[in-house]
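Open question from group meeting: does this chain pack into something compact, or does most of it stay loose? Before anyone orders reagents, we agreed to write out a predicted structure and look at it together. Recording both the input and the output here so the notebook holds the full record.
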Amino acid sequence: MPDGSRVEYGPQLRAVTRSELEIRDGLAVAPDVPGIGIDRDPDALDDRRVA
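Structure tokens returned:
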């Protein structure tokens, strides 16, 4: 949506991230750090790597 009225939220990513999108009162809260606010966990990703 061009107006940003929808945000895709994937709670299944919790297993491979150190942080997640904050939802407050039904709205996504903009992170106070650079980027989109999702901090991937490289060790968790490596553990799930398929050869």
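Observations to bring back to the group:
The longest helix spans residues 42-47.
The two ends are 36 Å apart (CA to CA).
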